[in-house]
Design a protein that fits this description.
With 75 residues, the chain is α+β, with helices and mostly antiparallel strands. The chain has one domain: 2-Layer Sandwich (Translation Initiation Factor IF3), CATH 3.30.110. The protein is 31% helix and 35% strand. The chain is built from two helices and four strands; from the N terminus they run E-H-E-H-E-E. The chain has a four-stranded mixed beta sheet with strand order 1-2-4-3, with helices on one face. Strand 3 and strand 4 form a beta hairpin. The longest helix is centred in the middle third of the chain and has 12 residues. It starts with a strand and ends with a strand. The mean pLDDT is 97.
Length: 75
Amino acid sequence: MNFDKELDARGMNCPLPILKTKKSLTDMVSGQVLKVISTDCGSVKDMQAFADQTGNTLVSQTEENGEYIFFMQKK
């Protein structure tokens, strides 16, 4: 999937992946896609909740070898 910016949140625990995601999205324009890589299993439900609360779109989420990869589109 194409993305405009990547955030490496590996090794960070809740709530840091969400806080860093929020900060990264503020520097982006509407429609751009942020790729987030996290190793915190709590990120799975947190990213969906964040998307629901902020109106940003969680385009996809996958898990590969203990890493969670999210694609978030800025509203």
